[in-house]
Structure to design on (459 residues):
């Protein structure tokens, strides 16, 4: 290690390399105890990233890319002998182009920073998620982040017009396209979006911006069944003329934990089986109110409250986004992120609950998530000593029957690697390994993530 460390210091300077106890003192990310890397190197430019990877590739030095450390699948976990490559100092918004409605940013820019910056130009960046204050845009692209407005704008993949990435051998792929339509051969940026840092290091992005909505209408509704909410989803989407931007499911367990005594004030009474947070951007308030009134008349929901101010809107969203109470009450806390057809959600939730409580009768479970795009989050506290793999089986095995996905938006990393075969066929997995071998033959980038390292080297 001393030789490679000296080389890295020569590239980024002494202040750009963190060593020793200072490495372990850094925040390791969700569900990880500590950073085990031998060093953290912090470049300031694509050119420095290129030199770092070229040097590491030449000696077979493993490198794990780190961003805001807000992922939930341990894709940024490091081991002794590995180098962590942090993009935290590559945090410049290089250009905001109001005419073409694009932003060119370095990968370490924090999502909320971009949101605030483009708002000053009357523009919005469509991606939004609870970790907006810490997650970085390069990581959002590397994991193909989803979040709260996928139903209207799509995932991160749909927000990226172009990108720049450094291959494991140090070559720079600069495809900084600024056009919405560019049908000239393979769309190479798609290789890196969602690759979790295993194929290259994203260093720069050209992002699509939208007009900042003039109005936001937000409501919380209650219902007794998922079938009711599925009908409500179709109804409001049609009635609002495509302006529906969020449709978030909250089950009674999650709602009652977050609106218990001394916590968030409940806008609707406890006792309903499900709740849904509905938001529409750029919709006239009267149209929104009429759509909900019609839904109540058709018994697509049982009760509803519409936010009459920004303060009330934020209070409703806080019930959905605040995980502090559920994490504390469900100790030891486990979180899952799955995707499946909306029509299969009711049976899936029933089966998962039955499997879990059949094994651990005193376990706690809550469902929430982006119902509008088929994404459920599952929060579980099975109790001390419950084997992690057995809890995972309760959540993932029922997805086989409905051809669901073990990961809707957080990726695979280490956490979901044993379950990838539920969602991807043997041929698909083999193709992924072939691409990995082609771009990273020395297996230095994020080794062992998504696939077993032995599979990568022997396939």
């Amino acid at each position: 290690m001393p030789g490679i460390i000296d080389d890295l210091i020569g590239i980024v300077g002494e202040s750009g390399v963190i060593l020793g106890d200072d490495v372990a003192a850094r925040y390791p990310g969700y569900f990880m105890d500590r950073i085990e890397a031998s060093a953290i190197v912090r470049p300031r430019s694509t050119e420095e990233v290129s030199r770092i990877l070229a040097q590491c590739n030449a000696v077979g030095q493993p490198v794990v890319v780190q961003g805001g450390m807000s992922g939930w699948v341990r894709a940024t976990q490091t081991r002794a002998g590995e180098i962590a490559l942090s993009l935290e100092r590559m945090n410049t918004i290089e250009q905001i182009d109001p005419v073409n409605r694009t932003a060119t940013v370095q990968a370490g820019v924090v999502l909320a920073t971009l949101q605030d910056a483009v708002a000053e130009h009357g523009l919005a960046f469509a991606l939004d998620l609870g970790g907006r204050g810490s997650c970085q845009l390069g990581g959002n692209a590397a994991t193909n982040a989803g979040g709260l407005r996928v139903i209207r704008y799509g995932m991160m993949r749909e927000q990226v017009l172009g990108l720049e990435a450094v291959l494991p051998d140090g070559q720079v792929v600069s495809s900084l396209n600024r056009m919405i339509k560019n049908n000239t051969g393979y769309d190479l940026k798609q290789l890196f979006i969602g690759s979790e840092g295993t194929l290259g290091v994203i260093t720069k992005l050209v992002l699509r911006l939208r007009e900042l909505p003039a109005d936001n209408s937000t409501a919380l509704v209650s219902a007794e069944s998922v079938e009711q909410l599925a009908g409500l989803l179709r109804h409001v989407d049609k009635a609002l003329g495509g302006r529906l931007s969020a449709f978030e499911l909250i089950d009674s367990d999650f709602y009652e934990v977050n609106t218990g005594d001394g916590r968030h004030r409940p806008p609707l009474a406890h006792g309903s089986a499900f709740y849904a947070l509905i938001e529409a951007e750029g919709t006239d308030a009267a149209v929104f109110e009429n759509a909900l009134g019609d839904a109540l008349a058709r018994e697509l929901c049982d009760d509803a409250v519409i936010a009459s101010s920004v303060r009330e809107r934020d209070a409703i969203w806080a019930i959905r986004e605040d995980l502090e109470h559920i994490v504390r009450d469900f100790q030891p806390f486990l979180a899952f992120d799955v995707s499946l057809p909306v029509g299969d959600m009711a049976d899936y939730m029933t089966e998962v609950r039955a499997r879990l409580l059949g094994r651990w009768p005193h376990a706690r479970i809550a469902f929430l998530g982006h119902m509008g795009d088929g994404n459920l989050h599952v929060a579980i506290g099975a109790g001390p000593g419950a084997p992690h793999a057995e809890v995972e089986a309760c959540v993932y095995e029922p997805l086989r029957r409905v051809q669901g996905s073990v990961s809707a938006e957080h990726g695979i990393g280490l956490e979901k690697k044993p379950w990838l075969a539920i969602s991807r066929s043997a041929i698909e997995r083999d193709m992924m390994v072939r691409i990995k071998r082609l771009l990273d033959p020395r297996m230095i980038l994020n080794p062992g993530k998504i696939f077993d390292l032995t599979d990568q080297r022997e396939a």
Summary: The first strand starts at residue 17 and ends at 19. DSSP finds 18 helices and 18 strands in the chain.
